[in-house]
Amino acid sequence: MAEQITREDALTREGYRHACHIMLYGDSSAKLFGKIPIKHIVLMQMRFDGLLGFPGGLVNPSEETLEAGLSRELHEEVGVAVPVGVDNHVSSCLSPSCPRLITHFYIKKMTESELKEMEKAAVATATDHGLEVKTLSVISRVCKCTYKILLCIFLICLQVLGMVRVPLYFLKNGGGLPYFLSHSFISNSRAQLLSALQRCGLLSQGELEKAVRQAEQMRR
Ligand code: GTP
Ligand code: MN
Ligand code: MN
Ligand code: MN
Ligand code: MN
Ligand code: MN
């Protein structure tokens, strides 16, 4: 369990870096296969390193507020500079995986159409990705460096492979949320997801425990 501190305390500490990430979510009237109500849309992302995490990133509080920095990261990673305020802040903690890093977590509720617009904007960014891959082969021919090296550099710069929706339902044999939870997550983002789902009342305590239990059995 990561050590929790307040936002104010975090900002007075010297020699720490700060990272801000956010769970964007909302209610949905859509149905999976036209019959299973998905009820809520919860967005995470597939990072360049193959881990799941929330959109957001490093913020330097001497240059911008935590919330303005998070908004900037959303613009870079999702294509929309979603406004974020102090009222969206839910927790700050000393990173369990990274020394001298404080991770701040935010939650913001949006409308279904806003979320769908964001998903589209994120795909538009991915279209740039496709274009740039073509440019890469040209650069690699001109500069005589290997395409693979350029692609690695590019993927590290790219950071995000795509937005993903968190399945909040249960299908047969662990399908849905249990399978989702059995993937690998960056830092403590899996714990952030679970506590946010509970805090926002998107799933009951019993449902969350069931999902965690089933995910645990899968990993064995
Ligand atoms: P750069 O452009 O390389 O600076 O990346 P970034 O600013 O987008 O940073 P990134 O999103 O990778 O977050 C910075 C650090 O925060 C990571 O190295 C992780 O240790 C941590 N981190 C990333 N995503 C999450 C998340 O969803 N939750 C938590 N708690 N930590 C995260
Ligand atoms: Mn980023
Ligand atoms: Mn990021
Ligand atoms: Mn960044
Ligand atoms: Mn960056
Ligand atoms: Mn509900």
The largest sheet, given as strand count, sense and whether it forms a barrel, is: 8 strands, mixed
Radius of gyration: 19 Å
Structural class: alpha+beta
- The CATH topology is given as Nucleoside Triphosphate Pyrophosphohydrolase
**Shape designation:** globular
* Bound ligands: guanosine-5'-triphosphate, manganese (II) ion
- At CATH level 2, the architecture is Alpha-Beta Complex
Helix content: 40-55%
Q: What do we call the CATH homologous superfamily?
A: Nucleoside Triphosphate Pyrophosphohydrolase
Number of helices: 7
Low-confidence residue ranges: none
CATH class term: Alpha Beta
Order of SSEs, N→C? Answer: EHEEEEEEHEEHHEHHH
List keywords for this structure.
10 strands; alpha+beta; 8-stranded mixed β-sheet; single chain; binds guanosine-5'-triphosphate; Nucleoside Triphosphate Pyrophosphohydrolase; 24% strand; two-stranded antiparallel sheet; binds manganese (II) ion; 7 helices; 220 residues
Topology (SSEs and partners):
Elements: E1 4-5, H1 7-12, E2 17-27, E3 31-32, E4 36-37, E5 40-47, E6 52-53, E7 56-59, H2 66-78, E8 89-94, E9 101-109, H3 112-143, H4 147-158, E10 160-165, H5 177-181, H6 189-199, H7 205-219
Parallel strand pairs: 2-9
Antiparallel strand pairs: 1-8, 2-5, 2-7, 3-4, 5-6, 5-10, 8-9
Helix pairs in contact: 3-4
